[in-house]
Design a protein that fits this description.
18 strands; alpha+beta; single chain; 364 residues; four-stranded antiparallel beta sheet
Length: 364
């Protein structure tokens, strides 16, 4: 099956994070596909969707070497039915569709590369495909930690930088939920008895904004706010979910300690702060530089010039990088529009990236 045909099949199987049945059905596809490619694949059950781990044996003199790990995910940010607003279509060498760039294109690239290395000597390959990467991989963190032990390097199948460069480090990323319980009361007849959970939440978000400003290069996005019900009732409940991005683990720890230690501004307001998921900062290192040099050499062997630079977004490679495993990310196809309605990949880059990944498997 052509790469584009398989990518269309994958994109049209919608797999939003948390849609257990859809994710598990896609995991079935991967299990069969990896088996057809000569791997031994297994599913790792999780409440919100099963993860997949596959091992492909090495060949020749390098068959006993440490495995090369690839990291991917099969969940997307798009809900079931998004295809109606963002239908798959290919025009002028560009492919559009929900999840085509982030990151089903990367899954197809790896599969094609594994086809290409059949019959060549290479070290073993291990693949982890997680089902909740888009929300910080809360159920997959222990799996990635365990399966990355003893690997020679980890390569992520996320999208590359726009020019095709791979990613050499990533900001740390944490999701935090702030919940406020106040006290309901009639907003006109007895407002003094009430404790507004919404007002308390707004004041807490102002405190968080000032806190982040003190620490400099920290990104903070208030992603959701909920609360209240009627304009004539002092609201008794409110909540917000925030996303933080950190350059280094020291700042990350300081900010998270301060946020989780927030205290109520209003008497009788109850504040609960929870860290929903956390990916530690993956920082540059000599080991990453050495791995990048090997990847660049592999790229030149197939007529490609590959560079690398830092990235702001987080992914499962944050964890392997933080653990000290030599790590690079961004081996998916080139394109743009991750998490956006114009999500797309450049069709020709699918084969280019497959050639690159196959060269890496053969030579690293």
């Amino acid at each position: 099956m052509r790469m584009i045909d398989r990518l269309r099949e994958y994109v049209e199987h919608e797999t939003p994070t948390g849609a257990t049945d859809a994710l598990n059905a896609f995991a079935d596809r991967l299990l069969h596909r990896y088996g057809d490619l000569g791997g031994t694949a297994r599913r790792v059950p999780a409440v919100t969707g099963d993860h997949v781990v596959a091992d492909f044996p090495g060949r020749g003199p390098r068959s006993g070497d440490a495995p090369l790990l690839f990291l991917g995910h099969h969940d997307t940010v798009w809900p079931i039915g998004r295809l109606e607003q963002m239908p798959w279509h290919e025009q002028d060498g560009v492919i559009h569709g929900p999840g085509v760039f982030d990151m089903k294109g990367g899954l197809v690239v790896l599969e094609t590369a594994l086809e290409q290395v059949a019959g060549h000597d290479h070290r073993p390959v291990r693949v982890i495909v997680t089902a909740d990467e888009e929300v910080g991989s809360p159920s997959a963190r222990d799996l990635v930690t365990a399966e990355s032990a003893g690997v020679v390097a980890a390569l992520g199948l996320e999208p590359p930088h726009p020019n095709g460069d791979v990613k050499t480090s990533r900001r740390g990323s944490s999701r935090v939920r702030i919940e406020v319980t106040g006290r309901e009361a009639h907003a006109a007849l007895d407002p003094g008895r009430g404790v507004s959970a919404i007002d308390e939440l707004v004041d807490q978000l102002i405190v968080v904004r000032a806190l982040v400003a003190r620490y400099g290069d920290v990104l903070c996005n208030v992603g959701t706010i909920t609360g209240g019900g009627r304009t004539n009732v002092v609201p008794g409940q409110a909540a917000a979910e925030l996303g933080f991005r950190f350059v280094d683990p020291e700042t990350e720890r300081a900010v998270l300690d301060a946020v989780t230690g927030l205290q109520p501004v209003r008497r009788d307001a109850v504040l609960t702060v929870s860290v929903l998921s956390n990916r530690p900062a993956w920082q540059p290192s000599d080991a990453v530089d050495e791995l990048l040099a090997k990847v660049a050499e592999a790229g030149r062997s197939v007529g490609q010039e590959i560079g690398g630079k830092a990235a702001s977004g987080a992914a499962d490679t944050n964890l392997t990088g933080w653990l000290g495993v030599p790590t690079l990310d961004g081996f998916g196809p080139r394109g743009k529009g991750a998490h956006a309605s114009h999500e797309q990949v450049i069709a020709a880059s699918l084969a280019e990236r497959a050639d690159l990944v196959a060269a890496i498997i053969r030579t690293i």
